[in-house]
Design brief:
Length: about 160
């Protein structure tokens, strides 16, 4: 088992990373790497609001009960996944639009960002930058209630952020 995989199983997962397809995994693993570099365990799942809607809903509805505190959802094309997570869970949902279709991620960006009021998805940038920033934003959310993590983030920023 790789050190990264060991990190994922060692402690309770606080962040759930879900993606619409196995083909999204290389990009979404970037989010996992950022979380793990700060010692935050995550759960990684493939579920699709289009292809496996019942399983996707079940994953979202049970997320809080499994101890997750933030959901990161990455999907490309007609990206419904992050919105579906927000529809089924009241955890904060961070959406990562992925550039997997011929439209280069602009389709996924619009689908993820333009949620109706009351069903929020905090939408990050397209692709790997978005995946990494989703993890950084998740860390900042978790740090609101976790002084040790807040100190780790502060140290990583060279003490430059209050
Ligand atoms: P395949 O590579 O499996 O054909 O998937 C996935 O996120 C992926 O980027 C192509 C793309 O379809 C996306 N997909 C969604 C959803 N499910 C799969 N956007 C969804 O639920 O929104």
């Amino acid at each position: 088992m790789s050190p990264a995989a060991r990190g994922r199983t060692r402690s309770r997962a606080r962040v759930g990373i879900v993606m619409g397809s196995e083909s999204d995994r290389p990009v979404m693993e970037e989010a996992a790497r950022v979380l793990e570099s700060f010692g935050v365990a995550c759960e990684i799942a493939v579920r699709s609001a289009h292809r496996t809607p019942v399983a996707a809903a079940r994953w979202a509805r049970s997320a809080r009960g499994r101890g997750l505190e933030v959901i990161i959802a990455g999907a490309g094309g007609a990206a419904h996944l992050a919105g579906a997570m927000a529809a089924h869970s009241r955890l904060p949902v961070l959406g990562v639009p992925l550039a997997s279709s011929p439209l280069g991620g602009f389709d996924a960006l619009l689908a993820t960002v333009q949620m109706p009021p009351g069903v929020p998805v905090g939408t990050l940038g397209v692709g790997a930058w978005g995946a990494r920033n989703a993890a950084h934003l998740a860390l900042r959310i978790l740090a609101l209630g976790d002084a040790a993590l807040a100190r780790r983030l502060e140290r990583a920023a060279g003490g430059g952020r209050a």
